[in-house]
Amino acid sequence: MINKLIENIKKTGAPIVVGLDPTLKLIPDHVLEKNYKEYGANLEGVSNAIFEYNKTIVDSVYDLIPAVKPQIAMYETFGIPGLVAFDKTVKYCKSKGLVVIGDIKRGDIGSTSTAYALGHLGKVTIEGKDFRGFEEDFATVNPYLGSDGVKPFIDVCKEEKKGIFVLVKTSNPSSGEFQDQKVDGKPLYELVGEKVNEWAQECREGDYSQVGAVVGATYPEMGKILRDIMPNSYILVPGYGAQGGKGKDLVHFFNKDGLGAIVNSSRGIIGAYAQEKYAQYGAANYGDAARAAVIDMRDDIASALK
């Protein structure tokens, strides 16, 4: 799957992943009102509004980007109907040729991690027939429980030719409370990076591995160190745009071949219509605003990498 992601990046010239993280505040009123009228002002109404919102954004940007990253918590908020919207979103994005990174941040003891991995990346067999759950191409994984929590995902990735992004240095302000603490003279995030590199060697497909890493754009100097520690891992870079990251902060996340990283923006794209810069589009044309924001992000990154 990493090779498909790289192929999509080369085809679009945009190392960008759009975070499909819908909230009630982001969904335009006319979309909510339409679905409330049809399905009711309830969880089903919101679920259908979420899918309509996502679909319009995807239809507006799918030819410009290689991948999307739906954050499952934004769907779980609305219970089972929300998860139905998540499932429909994943399937629709794949039908448009996009790579789907399920932002699920799972990680638990072995049997539980196996269940998570099978549910999101693999399959289950019932009476001799195989069935698949959510069918993402990649998933984000929390390594805090160690190899017991990560290896089941790696095993499923090997079987299914899919991938994971392991949390190494996250973009949130308080990440340093744990991730920056020194262990034998090294910050913990470096030790995690070294372990990710070890896991990556098990799943190489050419220059890159199915095992990638999450490193926030808000910590560019740390990104430079981790790029050297994990030369064969793709880095998923959150924190662009709404969290303060800019194109100039991203240079060291990439390898000399111009590959090796993919940058996420969520609210900055799906909520672009609400920003002053894109106000001319208005809520009625939120898809067009999202497209304009993707083009601006693509140009910003390209300019920085030159």
- Which blocks of ≥5 consecutive residues have pLDDT under 50? none
Report the count of strand segments.
14
CATH fold group: TIM Barrel
The end-to-end distance, rounded to whole angstroms, is: 27 Å
- Treating each run of at least 4 consecutive H or I residues as one helix, how many helices? 12
Would you list the SSEs in sequence order as H and E?
Answer: HEHHEHHEHEEEHEHEEHEEEHEEHH
Structural class: alpha/beta
CATH architecture: Alpha-Beta Barrel
Q: Could you give the order of strands across the largest sheet?
A: 1-2-3-6-7-12-13-14
As a percent range, the share of strand residues is 15-25%
- Overall helicity: 40-55%
Number of domains: 1
Q: Tell the overall outline.
A: globular
Per CATH, the superfamily is Aldolase class I
Describe the model.
This protein is α/β, with parallel strands linked by helices and 306 residues long. The chain has a single domain (2-305), classed as TIM Barrel, CATH 3.20.20. It is 45% helix and 17% strand. The protein is built from 12 helices and 14 strands. The strands form 4 sheets. Strands 1-2-3-6-7-12-13-14 form an 8-stranded parallel beta barrel, surrounded by 7 helices. Helix 2 (29-39) crosses helix 3 (43-61), helix 3 runs parallel beside helix 5 (79-95) and helix 6 (110-120) packs parallel to helix 7. It is globular, with a radius of gyration of 19 Å. The mean pLDDT is 95.
